[in-house]
């Protein structure tokens, strides 16, 4: 909080002298993730994958693929990077999956400075369009919210795992307002500005609301004492998502849950259980109904193309 003191002071003065400028400055802070650094562990993990890039909302998205088989996508959270979910990669590859991860716009090796749920969802959609329809998606924090939005807009997935998922922008906005000492009027101006920029209302990002129309099985793991995203967010999503299973962990917080052996094991077991729905096609490719050569991708991504138009 001490590092925020000069920003609080400056914004406090701007709110009185130039309210719209204060709202613009606050919006920039709200949508700018902090840091792009990767640990050596993450760098070494990514070096073992096949790197590629796609474009989403005018930004270059860095992505990596590991192994072969039905694709499982790993989606990081706010101010994170794809390699943070590295603990899931090896057991998923060993179980016969191809693991795909990426850095969202404004994060890691991808271009851009500002980001949002809309940017995350657009990046996921673009990566899926290139790499194939997901057997499963494993997503953390804001990445889970973006996954729910992408799926609500037509992105197909057979199974979904959420780790410490956030319920939507209302909670983040209130924490942000408190940290920077912003008035309710400034936050209202920030919201209006951001909705014009995003082309969507904040109400559209409520994950419990997005969950109601879902059909894919969901395993949700959330730590009881998560200091960044309240456990109640995950519980609310699990209650709204038809057939979801909520697992409450203890002592793992918001990020250690990504490396816990029991969490990884439960997630991989849940994802692998869905392999029973796959059968080899005439070309010997393990897919749900057919392979790329047979034309599955074309039929599936008619839906994804429509959703991408909405995200653009």
Q: Number of helical runs? A: 12
Low-confidence stretches: 280-312
Rg (C-alpha, Å): 19 Å
Query: What CATH architecture label of the largest domain applies?
Result: 3-Layer(aba) Sandwich
Mean pLDDT: 88
Largest sheet: 8 strands, mixed
Give a verbal description of the structure.
The chain is α/β, with parallel strands linked by helices. It has two domains: 1-30 and 173-205, no CATH class; 39-168 and 207-311, Rossmann fold. Helices cover 43% and strands 16% of the residues. The chain contains twelve helices and ten strands. It has helices at 5-17, 19-30, 40-46, 89-94, 117-131, 142-152, 169-180, 184-198, 207-211, 231-240, 261-273, 296-311, and strands at 50-56, 59-67, 71-75, 98-102, 136-140, 159-163, 218-223, 245-249, 279-280, 286-287. The protein has an eight-stranded mixed sheet with strand order 1-2-4-3-5-6-7-8, sandwiched between helices. A hairpin with a 5-residue loop joins strand 9 and strand 10. Helix 1 runs antiparallel to helix 2 (19-30) and helix 2 crosses helix 8 (184-198). The protein is globular, with a radius of gyration of 19 Å. 45% of the residues are buried.
Task: Summarize this structure briefly.
The protein has 312 residues and is an alpha/beta fold. The protein has two domains: 1-30 and 173-205, no CATH class; 39-168 and 207-311, Rossmann fold (3-Layer(aba) Sandwich), CATH 3.40.50.
List keywords for this structure.
single chain, 312 residues, alpha/beta, Rossmann fold, 2 domains, eight-stranded mixed β-sheet, two-stranded antiparallel sheet, 12 helices, 10 strands, globular, disordered C terminus
